[in-house]
Amino acid sequence: MHGVATVHKLLVLPLILLTLACQAHDDPNRRLISTNGFGEVKVKPDIAIVNLSVRAIHKSGKTAKLDVDDRVNNFLDELKNMKIKQEDIIASSIRLNPRYEHHSGTRRFTGYEAVRTLSITLHDMGQLTVVMDQALEQRLEGIDNIRYDNSQMDTHIQSAHQLAISDSKAKAAALAKAYGAELGPIIRIDYHRNTPVYRGVAKASSMEGVQMMRAAPSRPGTYLPDQIIYTDNIQVQFDLIINP
User: Fold this and answer.
1) What is the reported pTM?
2) Which residue of 5, 71, 191, 238 is most buried, as measured by CB atoms within 10 A?
């Protein structure tokens, strides 16, 4: 019986401590301070991701496929000559669909449309104009969009995170000192990671992109991407110790 009583006491003790902790947390007289820490890192992109597309329409589905395959293969040869690595190129998809014209309630078959899409990651920003020019020369006339990134993304995300932590501590300490108090232990942390923001994504529809390039001067285009902004935000709640 003595052993059973001892076990019973050991089981009850954690429940008592948990109850006391909950009561302390719910104490209406408890003094707390909440702060919001913010961190921001701005960097220039050093990677460009170019998304391209090519399409062809022919009476024969096979002919349409061979047409886009031939253009893509010629373009890939040019990328190889530019020393762009194969792992930085995605050219794996193709769509082949019948095309119809609708007129006066009737439908007339006009052929098959083949579409291929490509994505090229450039680690040398100076190659951007050359790649787009080569795409147009090989009749890949869909320059769908250009995205920018930074090769040290993980480092910048961590830097923004540390800045947010430091900011939350500094704000809480400054507020506590201003009111003649001290910070106690941390009570709660709310955290949601933010996604990087780029303020200058270049986008254009296929025909718009082609028309813009054809209307441009003969000298190579200059592309000046905006900064990538990595931000982080942390909400922290501290106990507030009032000095007597």
Assistant:
1) 0.68
2) 238
Q: Please state, in angstroms and rounded to a whole number, the distance separating the CA atoms of residues 64 and 69.
A: 9
pLDDT of 168-225, one tens digit each? 999 999 999 998 898 999 999 998 777 676 654 443 333 333 333 434 445 666 777 8
Fold of 47-149: Alpha-Beta Plaits (3.30.70)
Cα–Cα distance measured from residue 206 to residue 128, given in angstroms and rounded to the nearest whole number: 17
CB atoms within 10 A of CB 198: 15
Sheet holding 202-203, edge to edge: 89-103, 106-122, 47-58, 142-149, 202-203
Hey, what are 30's tokens?
């408890």
Quote the CA–CA distance of 198 and 49 in Å, as a whole number: 13
Q: What is the DSSP letter of 225?
A: -
- Residue corresponding to tokens 């078959």: 109
Q: How far apart are CA 147 and CA 122, in angstroms?
A: 10
For residue 127, give the amino acid letter. Q
Total length of the chain:
244
Q: 30-45+151-202+222-244: which CATH topology? A: Translation Initiation Factor IF3 (3.30.110)
